[in-house]
Each structure stands twice: as C-alpha cells, then as structure tokens.
Amino acid sequence: MEESEEERPLSEQESEKQLDDVLSKFNFGFFHLKVLLLTCGAYFSACSEMMLIVFLSKPVKQQWNLDDMMFPILPFCCGIIGFISSFAFGSLSDRFGRQKPLLIALAIVSIFGIVSAFAPSFWTFVVLRALVACGTSGIETVNFVLLLECLPQKKRGCIMVVITLCGALGAVLTASLAWAILPRLNWRWFVGACAAPACCVTIYGLIFRPESPRFLYVSGRREEGLAVLKKIAEQSKNDMPTENIVCPPTKDRGRIQDLFSRDLRGRTLVASGVWFLQSMGYWSVTMYLPEYMGSIGIDPYLNTFSVFIGEIPGLLLAMVLIEPTKLGRIKCLRFFSFFSAVCLVLFAFINVKIVRAVCVVLVFFFMVPIYSILNTFTPEVYPTESRGVAMAWMYMMIAFPGLITAFIGASVLSTNITWLYPTVAAIFFSLQLLLTLGLKQEPAGRGLSDSKAPQRACSNDVNHHDVEEDLTSLTDDRKTLHVCNGLNVPNGTETA
C-alpha cells in the first residue's frame, strides 16, 4: 500500500531552500527601509562632494592665480586616488563585509571634506580633495552592493534607482549652495557646507550598522546571517522558512582575476567599455559646464542648478522603465544612451540661447539615469563572492576619464569652437550605444547568484522564456527516445 503524500517524509532537496528564494519571499519592510536610508544618504553625500569640483574652477584659479592647465591637476589627482581606492574598498568588501568599508569611506569623506575648506595652498587642497575622492570611491563601490543583497526580487530595479535619485538630489544641493554662497561668500564656506551631509550619514551608519545576509552566508558566518534574516522577517511581517537555508560558503572571495574567468570574461569586458564611455561622456559635459554656459552668455549657476533639477524626472522615468514588465535593464540602457547622444547634437548645433539651455537640461535628463541602470545591472550579473570587486573594477574604469577629461575639456574650450565641446561628448554616448549591443544577459526578473558554482534554479527565475526552453528540450528528448526505440537500442546504452 502506497504512503500518502502527507505521511511521506520530505526528501533532502524538499527540506532545503535557497537563500535567494528566502530573501525574495520577504516583503519590503522596516529593515529594508533603514538600509535604503543609509545607502541613499551615503550616495547623496558622495555626489554632493563629487559635484563640488565643478563649481570650484573659477574661484580656485583666482585664489591661487592658476592658469587654465593647472586646475586640471586637481581632478587628475582625485582620479588617481579614486582608481586605487575603488579596488581596495571592493576587495575589502568581498573579504570582510559590506558594513565596515562603507563606514570607513563615510568617515574619510566627512573628515577630509571639512579639513579641505582650510587648505592654505593649492597643493594642500589637492591632497585633501584626493583623500575625499578616496572616500567617495569607497561609497560608490560598496553602497549599491549592500542594498542589492538585502532586497527582495520584486521591484528590485525600481528601488535601486532610488539611490541614484538621491545622488541627483545631492548634486542639486551642491548647485543650490554654489548659487547661494559663491557669489556672496568665500569658496571655503561652500566647501565646508558640502561636507555636512556626510557627517550626518556617518553618525546614522555608526548607530544602525547593517550587514548583508548574503555576504555572511557566503563567508561561512551562517549564524550571523540567520540572525539578520530573522530580523528582516520580523520587521517585514513575514514568517521565517522552516526549511534548511542553503548557500554554500566560498573561500576565494574578492579576487579580481575571477572577473576574467571563462564564465564572466565576456560580460566584464563589455560592461567595462560601457562604464568607461559613460564616464567619458558625463565628465566631458559636466567638468566645465558652468564656464561653457557663461562663455555663450547664459547664467552659469542658474543654468547648472536647472540642469541638476532636470536629472530628477529622468530618474523617475528610469524607475518605471527598468522593471522587467517594461524595458528591463539592457533596453532601458540603450534608450537613455541614444537620447543622450541626440540631445548633445542638438545642443551643439542650435544657436538659440533658450533652446540650448533647454537642450542641456534634456542631456542630463537622459544621461544621469544611465548611471542608475549600470549600478543596478552590474551587481546583478555577478555572484556574491565577486560582486564587490566587480563594482570596484567598474569604478576603476570610470576613474580613467577623470584623469583626462579635465585636460580634454580645457583644450576644447580654448579653441572657441562652440559646437565642439558637446559634440565630443555625443561621440562617446554613440559609441556606448553600439557597445550595449554586446550585453546579452538580462537580469531583470531573475534571482541573484551567490557563487560561481552551478546552483539549482530558483523558483523566482522561471519565466515564459525558460518554460519554452524546457518544453523544447522535453520534445527533443521524446524524439530521441522514439528514434532509439525504432533502432532497438537497449536501455542504458548511450548514444553519440
């Protein structure tokens, strides 16, 4: 007599549950909200500090009597330090956790952001701002990974874009402070004011101190990871699963060579190119934007403030389009790259002032959301054991343009050819659009991987495309069996 289904003991596979399945079943709750507040605040303060340099070109040159080719040394040195610190923070986050590197980066930005306001010479200012760049690079590298690894799958893309939206608000704050302070007070007041958000977020981070449950499981700290999951479940009003949670630990974490392994090499090379061209295009437009707008007779501070305000509706549009039910990650990236290039061409060749002012706002409307898409797409397509170093590699790629775009921008502006400045940036976004055609793996609507080792497909990964593939495979298996039976192939005999 057969055992009833209720009496049959659970098999080992049925009594296990993948970590990605567990996290994806939780609702978005108070724990997620606290992590979102920390990561949004961190990126807000980082973008506020990064945009500061855009408004310092003229006052710093006047303060220390610098020529046009001397000021670019500042962003050049910041780029060098940012390149090195991105790798350091990414590697540390994969080996020791997401929490500590993020808090260290926030503390660096807070301390040296304030101290740089008192720099007695240009070279001292360069050193101090380079240390601030060390902290902002660390925030960028770790921030998105920490939030991603805590989120449920539902609306993951939309929530990740919120971080970049807060970064845009940080840029708006910097533009507002520049508009309010620079025409009236010394630039040092402006630099000190821009460091205030980082100080506030650092204090909040020291109180809350969240850690990624994915990292804890992958690093073998199972009890700590389970404690975080219980906290998430309690604050999300969900029940903890009774099954054994599966996520094998890995020892070799945070190795940059893993990004160029057989399975990851292709996506690493293509994504690196897309990130590099995004940074080239963005900084080619942004670095000397106030000076350029002033040279064509438009109020630089007012227009730059309007430009940063224009980023916000673009990011809101990205929050809608990035979801799998709309365009998804890759098509959304192509959409914004295409219109960034188009708006830059219009900005270059239309000579009506008001139209040019509108065009540059539209450029930022389409250009800035690309960062939010890349910051969502990139950590999604890498496993937990390499996710931090993958983000570090991409931010190393975008540090290179910081070394050269300041000099390129200064050279282009010195030609007095007004259409050349935006045309150079349009070329970068056109090349980026072409390169996105090499991105094949769409992560929207799929679970996250925790290791490079093959894992059982999560229930969350099943979609119509997968079902079609499974049906096709089943049909092929039946055809093969029919042929084998027709040839009288014995059971258990392998066919070529």
CATH class division of the largest domain: Mainly Alpha
| Mean pLDDT across residues | 80
Number of domains: 2
CATH topology of the largest domain: Growth Hormone, Chain: A
Please describe the biggest sheet, giving its number of strands, its sense, and whether it closes into a barrel. Answer: 2 strands, parallel
CATH-wise, what's the superfamily of the largest domain? Answer: MFS general substrate transporter like domains
Runs in which pLDDT lies below 50 for 5 or more consecutive residues are 1-13, 454-496
**CATH architecture annotation of the largest domain:** Up-down Bundle
- Contiguous helical run count: 21
Structural class: mainly alpha
Instruction: Characterize the overall form.
Output: globular
Radius of gyration, in Å, reads 25 Å
As laid out across the biggest beta sheet, the strand order is: 1-2
End-to-end separation:
41 Å
**N-to-C SSE string, H for helix and E for strand:** EHHHHHHHHHHHEHHHHHHHHHH
Organism: Mya arenaria
Protein name: SVOP-like protein
Main location: membrane
Keywords: Membrane, Transmembrane, Transmembrane helix, Transport
